[in-house]
Amino acid sequence: MSSKPYVREMSKTTWFLSQPRYKRYMAREVTCVFIFAYTFLLIVALARLAQGPDAFQEFLNALRSPLGVLFNVAVLIATVYHSMSWFNVTPQAMPIQMGEEFVPGKIIVSAHYGAWAVVSLIVLFLGV
Amino acid sequence: MSELQKRQIQLEVLRYNPETDTAPRYQTYSVPCLNEWVVLDALNYVKDHLDPTLSYRWSCHMAVCGSCGMMVNGEPKLACKAFIHEYGDQIKVEPMANFPIERDLVTTVEDFITKLASVKPYLIPKSDQPVSAGEFKQTPAELKKFKQYTLCINCMLCYAACPQYGLVPEFLGPAAISMAHRYNQDSRDGGRDQRQEVIATDEGVWECSFVGACSEVCPKHVDPAGALQQVKVASTIDWYKEHLMPWVKK
Amino acid sequence: MAKSNKPIFWGLFAAGGTVTAFVTPVLVLITLFAAMRFSPALFTYEYLHAFAANWLGKLVIFGIILLSLWHAAHRLRVTVHDFGVRADTLVAYVVYGLAGLGTLLTIIYLLRI
């Protein structure tokens, strides 16, 4: 045993700046702020929908502003980063053993991206 | 046969002598290396020819004993697996992050040892069987289910990489929880409930936020991050069973 | 050491993370198009009102919003800690409180359609 072990301090606020992988982690975590904000936007949209066609049109008009576009672009970047980081780790969190072997991660991940594309296309063309 | 490429490496090593120093300091050694060497070879050259006072742990020199974990250019590495050809002519060597420094590159690892022991990392049979009952039988599929997690060499690089362990020293950590998972997944074992007492706590698996650095640095590809997420899933299912169906006996 | 109550929040976080991963990008694309005046057929009062008037539609909308809220809230709790704030209990009340508020509002508005 040491007579005097030395403890190196770790900054609780800037630790993630020291390595690229920590920065990527924090970028992933921060996507939740955008998704949280966007969900409240959806709740506002729901409120306006409940109030009637005029209220909903007002909501649409408010959305059609530079801020509205900027906000949606920011959320889009965040949510796509969330989706990709989520799908990429799914095989680690939920491995599937079939017989003796595990289903290769690439197959699980591709299936997710495929389903993502299908769901997105369906929703995009709903009502058309 | 062509000559092996010689390289002069500046090895910047974090030194600390608890008997004389108040804080660590860097010392640079100029080491004649071969490009095929590993950082451990360079350290051994320093100790043999330049500075016998340099202290560090090592043993097998082939990435199976887990002794020589250290930070090489800020990245948790086994010194015997950090190849000189991967680096430029300046290499910084420091003791593993998130552990107290005992002396030079030697860290105090008691915390990890205690935590590893706390998860009961041994087979706890479902029921007591006499030797006459014969051996445990296991299919290849049952073996495959936990085989990956048996490869851990307790090198603690995952603890050096894990920011949550750095920020919250009470955290059980990747290797300990993976080892619990190794036994939980073993068809011969019946000790999961006992291990959950330690695993299913705030300082257990729930401190993990899936940074994933542990799996990135693991030299044996154990994927502790994956193990921990699987433990979270199982623990969540447990929680719902306990709270929604308390009449179901474990 | 007592067993944690994190599982209940983590379960919602995981389910919400999966739902948002599949569905949120296209929703954002739709609102982005709407903001750029290319309103997709989906994002009109007529279509949305008809969708939400239906009980199955209500369930889908509620499911998506509920899981998005509780996913983001739990991740935000962890993120705030990662940024160095050491007041976990207070932060938990705030983020889950917000998620709870959002959940309540969603129910109220859906019942008005």
Into how many domains do the coordinates of chain B divide?
Answer: 2
Q: What is the helix fraction of residues of chain A, given as a range?
A: over 70%
Compute the number of strand runs of chain B. Answer: 7
What kind of assembly state do the chains in view correspond to?
heterotrimer
Number of H/I helices of chain A: 4
Report the CATH topology name of the largest domain in chain B. Fumarate Reductase Iron-sulfur Protein, Chain B, domain 2
What's the rounded overall pLDDT mean of chain B?
96
Task: Please list the strands of the largest sheet of chain B in the order they lie side by side.
Answer: 2-1-5-3-4
Number of domains of chain A: 1
- Report the CATH superfamily of chain A: Fumarate reductase/succinate dehydrogenase, transmembrane subunit
Beta-strand segment tally of chain A: 2
Please trace the helix and strand order of chain A, writing H or E for each element.
Answer: HHHEEH
What does the largest sheet of chain A look like?
A: 2 strands, antiparallel
Helix/strand class of chain A: mainly alpha
Beta-strand residue percentage of chain A: under 5%
β-strand percent of chain B reads 15-25%
InterPro entries (chain C): Fumarate_red_D, SQR/QFR_C/D
Keywords (chain C): Cell membrane, Membrane, Transmembrane, Transmembrane helix
Pfam families (chain C): Fumarate_red_D
Protein name (chain C): Fumarate reductase subunit D
